[in-house]
Amino acid sequence: MVLAFAGLEVLVVGLAFLAYARHAADGEWISLQGGNLVVELETAGRLERAEFERQWVRVEPKSGDLSLIELSGQGRSIEVGRFIRPELRQVLAREIRKALRSA
Prior knowledge:
The protein is α+β, with helices and mostly antiparallel strands.
């Protein structure tokens, strides 16, 4: 009886490690490449990429000051800021706006 429960416990721990491994490499990358703002989001092994012309990008909170940041332009939009604390999202938005204005 103990062996069955020990096996079940090892199986559950293994499944937990698999779930963790699936999301261990999740992240967001925002970069300026020439005249374009490039955003790449990786979630559970799925990569989403969006490019915006620098002069047409709008940077706004999705709904309120602590919500995700919506980058939009040319009929597309993408949300960023999932991996930083909500109170720092406005700092990120300011840094993106500043980078878009410079150069």
